[in-house]
Write a structure and sequence with these properties.
521 residues, Rossmann fold, 18 helices, 23 strands
Length: 521
């Protein structure tokens, strides 16, 4: 029997329901030794639920699990680890207040019966595990790290478990390109050693570059399993959504709004650390993109506008009037709302009901005489849930019962509940499937067409190129130029983001229609 003929994991007729919501309905899946097997589907298709069943977090209501040919019950994550199964969660599941080394060695420490911890040894283990991925100090506290570095720690922890089945759930969603390539090298090395990998991603390019087979789920049901060599991204997307997807990006503005009403005017914003002298304007009805490499100061600038990050200097004008925003409450009162890039920590309240989350920004809208009116709360939530095509069981269910993509829709609904004038979206489609991306892009353009100003920060250049009317590119904490029209292309944005485009806007060639680059305002 060759490596690829040996089945190491098989799931047959798996069923799982959460209340009235049937998350999985008769799902089949098999994993061969030494293969990278992609699992694809829209948010809410059941991918993460299936993986949590394999990891022992959830128990199936019906069906059979076979590990190395033997029918078994996986009681909990510790039992899964003992069977050689490791899961890298989409949502970071680490302890923020302890060191990187302690997080990476947590499974080993939990299993150990020693009275004392050998910190020198766990630092060595952590250093060896993290070194192939990034230069991260094992003694650093986890909460001091960026989201991308926290994700790398999560991956490093899984690599120390000596598993023969590894599950990666959206592992690259928060990673830079260099970090992603480092992970891919490790995956291919593990594959060569006979380790089997289940890979969940919405990025078709990654799947078709790294994986051997792909299984598609739709609405909790098994659709198909294909060899990567025998299919195409378009064919897989069609099977994922079960319908014609149409254009991923809605049409842009036919004319740019430079001469239109200025909604937001930011002048010389600085915090003297992450960004300096940043100036730009956002007009009513446009989608204004902010691009740049991770660490360029994109999120920090918009957080400073919203009162979520301190600034040391700069002036802000909103709707033609000087505005002093001291905190986020001031921002919401003005009509400026912010969608966090980290929905788990700052986007939603996971343990609260869906309806309560949507109403959370302004409880007065759903209150009478200081008491919450549940009827008004439900009506507001129902209207916004329908607008965003939210998939849920009941509005009383906690947000934690939803898929990651539907949690993101709840976070967006919470922003829209206050009828904002300016919406700032930080990585709005990170970890979202192609169908949900299209819906969010449509909603974004719909907001702009109603006169709302929209700022979009995204690390996905195709999204910036396809969605935005104008784009400010940041480099090392500064505005390195604002592009519009035909100049919004990946090559131009990369050059400006990397510093290669400094002063390019002054060359005669940049005044042509093909490459329109506006100097920083």
């Amino acid at each position: 029997m060759t490596r690829f003929d040996e089945t190491v994991l098989e799931l047959i007729g798996i069923e799982k329901a959460f209340g009235a919501t049937r998350a999985l309905r008769g799902v089949n899946f098999s994993l061969r030794k030494g293969e990278i097997h992609a699992l694809a589907g829209e948010n809410g298709a059941g991918k993460s639920t299936l993986m949590k069943i394999i990891d022992g977090i959830h128990q199936p209501d019906a069906g059979e699990i076979r590990v190395h040919g033997k029918a078994t019950q996986i009681a909990d994550p510790l039992a899964a680890q003992k069977m050689g199964i490791g899961l890298v969660h989409q949502e970071i599941a680490l302890c923020p207040d302890v060191s990187v080394a302690e997080n990476i060695s947590m499974p080993m420490l939990n299993a150990s019966k020693r009275w004392f911890v050998n910190f020198r040894e766990i630092r060595r283990i952590a250093r060896d595990a993290i070194k192939p991925l990034a230069d991260i100090d094992p003694d650093a506290r986890l909460h001091e790290l960026s989201i991308s570095n926290q994700q790398l720690v999560e991956i490093a922890k899984a690599l120390t478990l000596n598993c023969d089945i590894l599950i990666f759930d959206e592992p690259t969603a928060a990673l830079t390109e260099s970090e992603t390539q480092a992970l891919f090298r490790i995956m291919q090395q593990l594959k060569a050693e006979g380790i089997s990998i289940i890979y969940i991603s919405h990025r078709m390019a990654e799947i078709f570059e790294q994986c051997d087979r792909i299984t598609v789920l739709r609405d909790g049901q098994y659709v198909c399993t294909e060899n990567i060599a025998d299919t195409s991204p378009d064919a897989i997307v069609g099977k994922m959504v079960g319908r014609e997807l149409g254009e991923l990006y809605p049409p842009k503005l036919s004319t740019l709004p430079e001469s239109g009403e200025v909604l937001l005017d930011v002048q010389n914003y600085s915090d003297d650390r992450r960004f300096n002298d940043v100036s730009f304007r956002v007009h009513r009805g446009e989608i204004f993109g902010i691009a740049g490499l991770i660490g360029a100061g994109r999120s920090e600038v918009v957080k400073a506008i919203c009162g979520l990050h301190k600034r040391t200097s700069g002036e802000l004008t909103f709707l033609g009037r000087p505005a002093e925003i001291r905190n986020y409450q001031d921002s919401v009162a003005l009509g400026i709302v912010y969608l966090s890039e980290d929905r788990k920590e700052n986007g939603v309240f996971l343990d609260l009901p869906i309806a309560g989350n949507i109403a959370a920004l302004d409880l007065e809208q759903v209150s009478n005489y200081g008491f919450i009116n549940r009827r008004l709360e439900r009506e507001q939530a129902t209207e916004l849930a329908q607008r965003l095509n939210l998939k849920y069981g009941r509005l009383e269910h906690p947000v934690s019962s939803l898929s990651g993509g539907n949690q993101q829709k709840v976070a967006i609904a919470k922003m829209l509940s206050v009828k904002p004038r300016l919406v700032i979206m930080d990585e709005p489609t990170r970890g979202i499937d192609v169908g949900a991306k299209s819906e969010i892009h449509r909603l974004t353009r719909e907001l702009a067409s109603q006169g709302v100003g929209v700022i979009v920060i995204s690390s996905e250049l195709p999204e910036i190129v396809g969605l935005c009317d104008r784009v400010m590119v940041m480099c090392e904490g500064r505005n390195n130029g604002i592009v519009s029209g035909d100049a919004i292309n990946e090559d131009r944005l990369i050059r400006l983001a990397s510093g290669m485009g400094q002063n390019i806007e002054n060359s005669p060639a940049e005044t042509t229609t093909q490459f329109r680059v506006q100097p920083a305002t």
